[in-house]
Amino acid sequence: MKTYHKIGWICLLVVHLGVIISFNLLGLQKYQEEQVFEQLSPGGQKVYSTVQPYFTRRIPFFLVPYAHIAGTDTGYCLFSPNVPSAMSVAFELSNPQGDTVAVLPTLNTREGTDRFYVNFNTYKSVEEMRTLLAFSWGVRTMEIYPGYTDVAVVLGSHRKPSMKDHRHGVQSHFVETARYEFALTE
Amino acid sequence: MKKHQIRTSLDHFFFAPVSGSILAFFRVTVALFCIAKLLSFRGDLLNIFGGYGFVRTEITEILLSDFKPRLSWFTDAVATIGMGEVAGIYTLYVLLLLVLFALGLGIQSRIMAVLALFLHLMFFNSGRMFMYGVDYFTTSALFYCALFPVGRYGTLRQIRKHGFDTSAKTPIIYLRILQGHLCLVYFFGGISKALGNHWWNGEAIWRAVSIPGFYQIDMSWLASVPWLSLVLGVGVLLLECGYPLFMNIRKTRPVFLVLIIAMHAGIGVVMGLWYFAFLMILLNGVGYGYPWIIHWMTRFSTRQESSPTVSSTLETNKVVSSSH
């Protein structure tokens, strides 16, 4: 390998790793939000408050397409700082005759079903998208189950007891957090 | 003199030669992995992508920046010649499978890798709300296939002409880039977890194994052995935060590599995230387990050369039978 090739590869290495670091620091900015900050341990809050001022606030615009192509336009913060309560959705379909049926998201493959749950990331993080997403899920479910004219999209979270509570007999329970109702019109 | 020594050791660290067969291994396994992942949701293609899916195209595209490739670029273009959206999506799906197949075989590898990356991004962005960690890492793996000279080693043409040559060398810089990426992935993953409290008291493992969407096996017994959950939770923190250090120390690397592979295998078994687990094991294997993979490939190719081929065995049998 020629010297200028070597210099080129070292530069690429530095830029590439720099982009990964920047996106991760940007991702950690969300810990500033009150509801996330409260989840940090007292020590974690102290550490975070100390280092947070040094975090990246913006990524240079010309690096964003590069990061997208390289698959590094994300932070690696799955299940952090804590593992959140799991969300789920059910659809209540009804027809003019008064028949009602409740169904879960109906996909054909295990992988597809797993991937449906990823939708909740957008649902939780982008408030403006919530009604649109619920509408879209509802419409698709009505297409899969024809003959129904109304759909209620019921969202909720599974509240899992702590290990200690579980040992004392407390069971996980579903708490409805949102309900969207849509109807077919002529 | 000292300056010269530093330069030599830096040069050795970044550009020491390793067997190019590791890049061939990377190319083939990434291509096979992508094909398997694509096939895994073939029955839900229209539920995930396009105007008939659970999230309609127009809703998905609200959050997409203009520069990001998407399926509608193609489906809108072919609509002008009368091809419907469904046919357009299936055409790109089949095309991506073919391109990945060609990449695996090493046919025009660079072009195929770039094409595979572009097509993958079209699907990735158009089904954005269904995409998770494994898809980001798939993008990175395809990006590395496009960037690194993966087509110089172990291609179908080379194997047919000269057999599988494990003696060809490549600079280690490509693996260093992958290693750096992995170090940052685990370090930030570990640090962001360590700031919370679930990972320190065992609750994280307890909650993670019972998420309804990923529920595989009944792990409620874990509540009766809280110390196990605690050990696993703190173990994950140590593994992730310690990854950049211990994976780069020669003596601790084998143990850490085994533990990381065990962690991902565990995620696969307990949460059913097999594709994610496989890809992470693959990236770790290539990034840090390359000496063992190269050793295994060299042994395999040597055995292939020394063992009689089917045709030569047949010929030998023919000679033996005629002499009788």
Topology:
The complex is a heterodimer of chains A (186) and B (324).
Chain A lengths: L2 H26 L5 H4 L4 H10 L11 H8 L15 E9 L5 E4 L6 H7 L2 H7 L4 H15 L5 E10 L3 H5 L5 E11 L3
Antiparallel strand pairs in A: 1-2, 1-3, 3-4
Chain B lengths: L1 H14 L1 E3 L1 H20 L4 H4 L8 H4 L10 H9 L5 H21 L3 H18 L6 H15 L8 H7 L6 E3 L1 H22 L3 H4 L1 H6 L17 H21 L6 H19 L2 H15 L1 H17 L3 H14 L1
Antiparallel strand pairs in B: 1-2
Helix pairs in contact in B: 2-6, 2-8, 2-15, 5-6, 6-7, 7-8, 8-15, 10-13, 10-15, 13-14, 14-15
State the end-to-end distance of chain A: 70 Å
Number of helices of chain B: 17
Q: Please bin the fraction of helical residues of chain A.
A: 40-55%
Beta fraction of the residues of chain A? 15-25%
Secondary-structure-derived class of chain B = mainly alpha
Mean pLDDT across residues of chain A: 91
Taking all Cα atoms into account, the compactness measure Rg of chain B is 24 Å
Share in helix of chain B: over 70%
Biggest interface, chains and residue tallies: A-B, 74 and 79 residues
Shape of chain B: globular
The radius of gyration of chain A is: 23 Å
**Widest sheet, order of strands of chain B:** 1-2
Which labels suit this protein?
heterodimer, A: about 190 residues, alpha+beta, four-stranded antiparallel β-sheet, about 45% helix, B: about 325 residues, mainly alpha, 17 helices
Describe the protein:
The complex is a heterodimer of chains A (186) and B (324). Chain A is of the alpha+beta class and 186 residues long. Chain A is built from eight helices and four strands; from the N terminus they run ααααββαααβαβ. Chain A has helices spanning 3-28, 34-37, 42-51, 63-70, 110-116, 119-125, 130-144, 163-167; strands spanning 86-94, 100-103, 150-159, 173-183. A four-stranded antiparallel beta sheet of chain A has the order 2-1-3-4. Chain A is extended and about 75 Å long. Chain B has helices spanning 2-15, 21-40, 45-48, 57-60, 71-79, 85-105, 109-126, 133-147, 156-162, 173-194, 198-201, 203-208, 226-246, 253-271, 274-288, 290-306, 310-323; strands at residues 17-19, 169-171. A two-stranded antiparallel sheet of chain B has the order 1-2. The longest helix of chain B is centred in the middle third of the chain and has 22 residues, at 173-194. Chain B is globular, with a radius of gyration of 24 Å. Chains A and B meet through helix 1, helix 3, helix 4, helix 5 and helix 6 of A and helix 1, helix 8, helix 10, helix 11 and helix 12 of B.
